[in-house]
Amino acid sequence: MQRASARADRIAQFMLALSHHTKGGADNYVKAAEQAKLAAESGLGHAQCFFGNMLSTGEGVEKNAAEALKWYKRAAEQDLVFAQYQLGGHLLAEGKSDEATFWLAKAAEQGITNADEARVAWGESCTDLMDETRRNTLSTVGAFGKP
For the chain, how long is the longest CA-to-CA vector? Predict the structure, then answer.
């Protein structure tokens, strides 16, 4: 039960990060980065990729390509295809073609060969994560019965 609770906490942090980011604006980007970093540090791959993207673009945090690569790699190592694609693209831009080819090939093995496909995979994966959270919440509430 504790592991499920810890996973729910980091998913909640990630969802809060997405909510702040969606609102836009400098203050909300800072709040989004704070929540994304907490979820990323706890090991949630989606948050690791999202935080890497914030570092890559400088939204809510100081732009830091080296740090972004670190977070993309952590997410990619969890077999998240959109993270593999992002990591490969960034490594290619830095001239690290051997490592880039490795990660882009891993993404291609899962059917992602361009940025549009990566965006679709990201959206579907986030939807799956939210659905899992809803199911777990309903299951937990159901276990306690009605008030």
Answer: 60
Amino acid 106 reads K
Q: What is the token pair recorded at 143?
A: 């276990």
pLDDT at res. 121: 61
Within 8 A by CB and 6+ apart from 91, the residues are: 69, 97, 99, 100, 103
CATH number assigned to the domain covering 2-127: 1.25.40.10
> b or e along 11-36 (b: 16 or more beta carbons within 10 Å of the residue's beta carbon)?
bebbbbbbebbeeeeeebbebbbbbb
On whether the CB atoms of residues 66 and 90 are closer than 8 A, the answer is no
Cα separation, 23 vs 19, whole angstroms: 7
* For residue 5, pLDDT beyond 50: no
- To 10 degrees, the CA torsion angle through 98, 68, 51, 114? -40
What backbone torsions phi and psi does residue 63 show, to the nearest 5 degrees? -60, 130
Assess contact for 62 and 76: CB atoms under 8 A.
no
* 120 confidence band (pLDDT: 50, 70, 90): low
Higher-confidence residue: 123 or 16?
A: 16
